Input
Amino acid sequence: MTALLRWFDRTILELGREMRLSYLPPLMVYVAAGVSGLTGIVGTFFVKDYLGLSASFLAALGFWAGIPWALKMPIGHLVDLLWRHKAGLVYLGASLIAASLIIMIGLIGNPAAMREVMSAEAWFVLSTLLAPIGYVMQDAVADAMTVEAVPRIGEDGRPFPAESVRLMHTTMQMLGRVAIIGGTVLVSLANVAMFQGSEALPEADKVAIYVRIYELALVIPLLSVSGVLLAGLLKRREARRLAGLGHSAEEIDRLVHAPEQPTAPNWWILGGSAAFVALTLAVGLSGLGYGQELIFAASFTIIGVMIYRLVRELSDDARRTLLGTVIVIFVFRAMPGPGAGASWWMIDELGFDQSFLSRLDLITSTLTLAGLFLFRRFMAEKSIAHIVIFLTLASTLLSLPILGMFHGLHEWTAAATGGFVDARFIAIANTALESPLGQVSMVPMLAWIANSAPAHLKATFFAVMASFTNLALSASQLGTKYLNGIYTVTREVRDAATAAVTVPADYSQLGQLLVTVLVLGLALPLLAIAVTRLLGLRSA
Output
């Protein structure tokens, strides 16, 4: 019992004791990012039931929606350059997010009027592309705010020692992950409440729920803007405290409003990013064949050059650690998934409705949050390579029940247990085991960047590393698109006017798709770790 209490104190209570009021503003922006998933279930059912978009097209759309996250690099550098005025990017991002939500409110609530301007599919694509631009702007500012939130001067007027600063950075990054996952818990609770009993409702009532959820999601931009406003109030309070300690107006301005070191424009980042934006727009608007592959290759090259130039700011040891870390994380995050077809199969064949999926999301987000605490010491004490090996093996094992259900595992277990261990039981049990692992790989890397990056380039380093790891998600979407081109999975699509079936459901190739995803997800991350070791690189 004493050991358990000691673990509880070190893992959870200690984090609470390390919390500071100055951490709250970036945490509010991170909570807004977590709450962004509020419309996820609605979006899945809306696309499935009302839009004739294929799984391959949705994977391609996911690729384009991920491109703004590659632009986090110039946005992060812009935050460093416009340090005093970075709140403006949050306001702009909040406006884009609100516009995306309002489009969906109109598309679901009054589709006839929206179709008079553009097709429903075109409106959906526009909404899907606007939102990530807004979120990436807010996220880049929030990353910078986490650095700013760590105080430099103690209550006694003396600078904090380096070890205390390192601990505060680790705590701040941990709390940032907690805030994001906490936002997903709030989302899941809201979805459970909104979808309670919805399986028995007529379609018109379900649509009304969809609209209410998107209206509720308008709290997202309000949360992020409130965080920025609170940051302004806390800065003014800190300025008054420093004045009381006898600091001059110049010192107060430097300590409260200015970065630790001034940042000069990095024209490699700004020029390379401008070229990337121009190329992306040209390829996207031209409809050029293999446009996504061209954009990915250009993104990879530009970000790779930026990393090469930035790592020259680091020592040799830190440089090897950074390169080893980003390679392993990139490969781990770049693994393809089965795509939308797996969700459609669960809805159509396993009978997973909105109410059940909302409860499943609640389990996922709650246990992911718990996992951040449960694995806190593990994340702090183990290298990224050890963590990725553990997550790869665990993810492979936890993929087996879904593959088994495709081949009838749930029918056999239900027959053997009198219906107790059915498809929903297996899904819940699998989710309960898998969820705590969700954010384990990212916290050590973020803490390492916060503590090791040069003081005058904190936001830039965050942004470049985030761009590279987010580019891995674009690679994942490309892989998902390729696999969905090889293994075709379709759900039933009916004509909106005649109700005639235009595309029949076909899940016959889903099993092969799941096996391929499982094998790639096991082999490639382990191979990446082996290669980095052979090259003499380390991981954080």
Remarks:
- Residues 162-195 form the longest helix (34 residues).
